[in-house]
Amino acid sequence: MFIGSNLLIVIFLLIGLCLLQVYLSKKSFLLGLILPFITFLYSIVMVMNFVVPSQATLWQMIGSVLSIFLICNIPTVMGVMIAGVYAHHRKKGQELDKMKIKDL
Hints:
By secondary structure, the protein is mainly α.
């Protein structure tokens, strides 16, 4: 029962963050980049907190750091994509408004 309630909390938190990202992206492109910037900083912190095992080779360390960085940047990429989609819609709407004004 305890695991299920924690899972529901995490799911609702993720849904809330996605809705917040959409809301901020609808307001402004720069506001839509706030959450991706925070998640990018989080990924850098995660890489800095990586502890290297003593028997790890150089390639194992590079692979581990790269995988941590890429996995932690999945929310960053998703946030930038959401911001980009809404920026494209906003730009398209502005172009339609200009065309309507010219038609008048």
